[in-house]
User: Which sequence fits this backbone?
């Protein structure tokens, strides 16, 4: 997906105003380095080139998963999912693998070779780029994925997401979640809902419960595919 793919073809503003907004947004590239931010739609993009996903990265998140915060996050994530869906699910970007360990019907997908080895060793590896799945979770991962279209296109019913939410570009640049080595997407709340709408998903739930565990600016979302009648 190119950044331009999420720019709306029609806006509620006049054409002249829309052009002005786009020009102003593009000018932010000079001010913010390589971060591009479109205030009209509340979506930002950074062209991440690095892939820091290795054994050290895996061990870092394995350790975090064993903390009291890891316990609390996993429990609230499983409860958040079960409030809407019970059944097989794939965790996209498994971090340290805790959700896959604790959810009895979860499999996982990752690009980190260490995580892939761990998942395959458990018989829990599933690539949603290739296989249609009923539901998927994206805990702190969807903003790492340059083009989520193939995966989201294969999610038949539900998508559950946690990620940092920002007020504006200044908020992004001040935030500890501004990670040019990892995060390529940045969103306001309405911008993220708009983003998922482009892939056929409607938001059915929203929570800030992870902030209660000390996770600054992290919000959780549940989405349902619009052509699902259940």
Assistant:
């Amino acid at each position: 997906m190119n950044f331009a793919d999420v720019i709306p073809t029609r806006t509620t503003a006049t054409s002249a105003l829309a052009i002005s907004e786009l020009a102003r947004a593009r000018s932010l590239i000079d001010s913010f380095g390589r971060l591009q931010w479109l205030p009209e739609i509340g979506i930002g993009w950074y062209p991440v080139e690095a892939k820091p996903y290795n054994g050290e990265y895996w061990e870092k998140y394995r350790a975090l998963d064993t903390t009291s915060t890891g316990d609390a996050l996993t429990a609230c994530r499983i409860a958040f999912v079960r409030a809407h869906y019970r059944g097989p699910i794939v965790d996209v970007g498994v971090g340290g693998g805790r959700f896959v360990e604790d959810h009895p019907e979860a499999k996982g997908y990752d690009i980190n070779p260490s995580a892939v080895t761990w998942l395959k060793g458990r018989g829990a590896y599933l690539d949603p780029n290739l296989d249609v799945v009923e539901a998927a979770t994206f805990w702190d991962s969807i903003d790492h994925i340059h083009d989520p279209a193939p995966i989201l296109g294969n999610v038949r019913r539900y998508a559950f997401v946690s990620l940092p939410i920002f007020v504006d570009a200044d908020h992004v640049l001040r935030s500890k979640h501004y990670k040019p080595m990892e995060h390529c997407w940045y969103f306001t709340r309405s911008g993220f809902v708009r983003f998922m709408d482009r892939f056929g998903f409607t938001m059915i739930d929203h929570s800030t419960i992870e902030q209660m565990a000390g996770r600054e600016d992290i919000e959780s979302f549940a989405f349902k595919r619009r052509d699902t009648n259940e």
